[in-house]
Amino acid sequence: LPYDFLFAIRRSCWVCFATDEDDMEAGWVQPCMCKGTTKWVHQYCLQRWIDEKQKGNSTAKVACPQCNMEYIILFPKVGPVVYILEKCDKIANMICPFLAGSVIVGSLWWTAVTYGAITVMQKARHRDKVSVSSDLDLIFMLSCLCKLTMALSTQDMKSEDPGLRIWLNCQLKT
């Protein structure tokens, strides 16, 4: 009898090592050019094995471990709802880092403005507080309050402070 005929009678999955007798209803496939015992594999086992190799990256190339033939993976067409959800997911993945950075920078800026406003209000008299806050342009006032906070917080820094030393070294290099 020919070699392929002997193994076609008794198939063995190279992933789970099950045979025809172990699971009569399993779907069998020949995904590559392998011969002999590595020729057959369960459809489910192959899909699971490919998923493990791709590690969540559906565009990653996967090849047979024995003959090194690259598998051609075809995905079924998705419906319009899934397509829209995938597009929204890609857009969210692009926007979220910028949004998170903006929230952090905005929070730091607003904290600095608040600290500057509290400092000005504590140092000024009551009637000066009202006239200063009503006379100044809002954008100018917010930027000045933020700069006041930076000036007050860097005023007490010592030159031996390691963070300031690193910052000064970077400034001198540029």
From TrEMBL:
The chain crosses the membrane at residues 98-118. It is an enzyme of class 2 (transferase). Keywords: Acyltransferase, Membrane, Metal-binding, Mitochondrion, Mitochondrion outer membrane, Transferase, Transmembrane, Transmembrane helix, Ubl conjugation pathway, Zinc, Zinc-finger. Pathway: Protein modification; protein ubiquitination. It is a multi-pass membrane protein. GO terms for cellular component: mitochondrial outer membrane. SMART domains: RINGv. The keyword Metal-binding applies. Residues 5-74 form the RING-CH-type domain. One of its GO terms (molecular function) is zinc ion binding. Coiled coil: none annotated. PROSITE patterns: ZF_RING_CH. Its EC number is 2.3.2.27. InterPro entries: Znf_RING-CH, Znf_RING/FYVE/PHD. It is found in: Mitochondrion membrane; Mitochondrion outer membrane. Pfam families: RINGv. SUPFAM superfamilies: RING/U-box. The keyword Cell membrane does not apply. Its main location: mitochondrion. It catalyses: S-ubiquitinyl-[E2 ubiquitin-conjugating enzyme]-L-cysteine + [acceptor protein]-L-lysine = [E2 ubiquitin-conjugating enzyme]-L-cysteine + N(6)-ubiquitinyl-[acceptor protein]-L-lysine. This is E3 ubiquitin-protein ligase MARCHF5. The lineage of its organism: Eukaryota, Metazoa, Spiralia, Lophotrochozoa, Mollusca.
